[in-house]
Task: structure prediction
Amino acid sequence: MTRLAVLAAIAWRNVLAHRLKSSIVGALLAAGTFIVIMGTSLVSSIEGAMARSITGSLAGDIQVYDKTAKDQLALFGFGGGGEDIGEIPDFPKLRDALVTVPEVRAVVPMGSVNTMLYGATELDQTLDKLRDNVRANGLAADPDREQLLGQVNAITHQLQDDQKAAFEIVSDKVKAQNDLDALTRVQTPEFAAEFAADPTASLDWLDKNIAPLASDGKMMYLRLLGTDMMSFTREFSRFRIVDGQNIPEGKRGFLIAKYGYEKFVKNKVARELDDMRNKRNDDGLRFATDKALSDQAGRCSRQYARILFMLSPHDGAELRPILQKELGSQEPDLGKLIQTFLTVDDTNFDARYDFFYKEIATRIRLYDVGIGDTMTLRAYTRSGYMRSVNVKLWGTFEFTGLESSQLAGVYNLADLVTFRQLYGKMSDSQVAELDTVRKAVAVKDVTRENAEDALFGGGSDALVTESTTTQAFDEFAGMDMTAATRAAAALDEKVYTQADMENGVVLNAAVLLKEGASLKDAMKHIEDASAAAGEPVKALDWQTASGIVGQLLLVIKGVLVIAILVIFLVALFIINNSMMMATLERTAEIGTMRAIGAQRGQVLLLFLLETLALAAVASSLGAVTSVGMITWLGTVGIKAPSAQAMFIFGGPKLYPTWSWLNVVLGMGSVSVISLVSTFYPALMAARVQPVVAMNPKE
Result:
């Protein structure tokens, strides 16, 4: 111990004596320690944040699905929902088996399907207002009706320009010409006279011939997640309702993610204004210096018709003087006033943004789909046919901390009954309800063999004669539509029991674990319990089940490992060369030590102790600096650079933390690499012969 103490003292003296070499090598070791501790702390913090984002918002700790499925479950992936993950036909049986597993806290049923939602266009909304006016006033002349007809003319004029531009590239020239003729007819005095004489028939003609031409661009794709909403709300802590209300217990309906509602369902002008405001406030952009933002402002002003056509005659008349006062203009044309108002720059944007939501947004339909509306969702079933379901939008939702994350808004929520109807697989009770509706409308099953008889009547040899009647074909003739309507309404108003919700097919389920439970053990016990119950499932941890998003963590870890390896290789090279130079410079010193009795092992130990002492000081300095930096960042947070990063950061900011494991790993790895890089030069020094070392010529 005495010899070791003497060697340690000599080693420390040598570190201080060779300040330049010690400073260079020490700075490198301190930087390496700083990077390792910072990197491992950030990765572990990101992993924890991602775990909270995914497990607390959608996936749970574990996802289970059919063990015989062709594809692997990926909640966030490139498959677009087309993966074949099989089915869990008897969820209650599976749930009862899984809740007996010691680690399991709760099991939430799920199933997803891609749906299409069609929102109303400006023309649809104008025609609805016009129809309400006709119902209220009949044939009587009305100023509001004249203004609404003017809006219809303006919209059809725009549609006519679009049709003319597309005429040369469409394949069906006949249909394109017919559409152009129909649009031209709306703007003629003859059509105005026809409307005055028979407004109901004219509205029917507009619905049939003109409204479909304005439907492009209004279809929205929704990824719908069917679940037990009461269980989902209870178990996923980040879930919260923003607008409207949650789907009432036992009722059908759906909820739209707030992010998607704002980005895709909101009026286009309002979306543009919101986006420009975010770019100005969050990114610090200005119209005068950023061309893209300036171009966006120009596009926004050209969208004035999206506001004009949505204003009722009353609201338009009310808004005109308000806009004139705001703009300091006497312009009588409301369209020009709105266009001027939407021409924004750095001096007026904030005031006009506030004015828009105070005075204009309250007078228009701000969202294509409103809270409380009953909408038609369409989806292709697994059999390949289209299924349509009328369902009520109860509200919007978001996950706390992920309000602006696009990934958190990928899924929209619905009850399990609605999901099964869209998926194409209903329970026995639902089939019975559908039969009730079928009987109410006198629907008959037609087989392949009797299809011709059902269509044309009589046997297959029956003579078909040309009809001479001019009466139009009514496909609903003979059906009791009142009874059908009552039956359909009964389905909408029905309150479903918990058994109704649970009994039926689900595709997967989220398993939430008790605090401190082992993820690996739980997965094994879950698979064993499901197999024993006759409902075998495959269990995936949250990271694997989240698909491409979860694999981002592996990429981040890989990048960190590569960076650390590069640093270690550089450190190894520099330290090795520094020690080689130091050995050559100290040849005489080494020879003297050997001449007075120092053994080779003592010389080797001396060099290693020098490196260890330098590594201890340098790595301690790097550790203190990194811990201080992480502690500071944990207070102020690291802002997510993008909406996608918010999901990875677990919110708008990442608040990193450090642990003693990170510190030990950083200091230990740097010390080991420094000792390894020193060993060969130290071994060379120990082999120097005293006579050779003390000869100044050598």
Notes: The mean pLDDT is 80. Residues 60-120+220-261+375-445+478-545 form one domain. The first helix runs from residue 2 to 17.
